[in-house]
Amino acid sequence: MEPGIPEKYDYEYIRNGTANIFMAVEFKAGKRVTQITKRRTMVDFAQFVRMLVDEEYPDVENIQLVMDNLNTHKEKSFYEAFSEEEAERILSKIEFHYTPKHASWLNAAEIEINVMDIECTDRRIGDMEILTHEVTAWTRRRNDDEKKINWGFTRGKADKKLSKYYV
Predict the structure, then answer these.
(1) What percent of the chain shows pLDDT beyond 70?
(2) Which residue segments constitute the domains of the chain, with CATH numbers given?
(3) Which of 35, 122, 147, 157 places its Cα 20 to 30 Å from the Cα of 113?
């Protein structure tokens, strides 16, 4: 500091922790399932999918999961989290589909996460309990209103746009 020169302060970001929000979207039905976790590990992912299989869709024989290529989004996660028998039981009901790199706009959950960011989580929320309460309320409201994603991307448009990725 010198006389006549204003004192300067630098903003110091204080991180109070992180959280993860898992989301599954049945976009034609206007249904989404969210779950808040402290981490985003293979075990956390496997437990979220088991909840989908056992609690949300217990009578469904085949669940199609479209997701990005995140390192936790693999069959290995289930063997890390559960016994071999339990992992195979869950995996027998799941079919994985991975979006190409840089194509998150093909993933309905990513689209819905963007809506959630705009309507609900567009700020720092420093408490897991508050985050869970707000995301749960947002999810319930979106589901009650049956908010759907109007998907206008056809196979023809996909072939044209993504042809550079095909061999």
Answers:
(1) 91
(2) 20-145 (3.30.420)
(3) 157
Regarding pTM above 0.85, the answer is: no
Q: How much is the average pLDDT of 91-109?
A: 84
The token pair at 52 is 């989908």
Task: Pull the structure tokens for residue 102.
Answer: 């840089």
One-character DSSP codes across the chain? --TTS--------------EEEEEEETTTTEEEEEEES---HHHHHHHHHHIIIIISTT-S-EEEEE---TTSSTHHHHHHS-HHHHHHHHTTEEEEEPPTT-GGG-HHHHHHHHHHHHT-SS----HHHHHHHHHHHHHHHHHTT--------HHHHHHHHGGG--
Q: How confident is the model at residue 130 (pLDDT cuts 50, 70, 90)?
A: very high
CA 137 to CA 53: how far, in whole Å?
Answer: 22
| Tens of pLDDT, residues 66-98 | 998 889 999 999 999 999 999 999 999 999 998
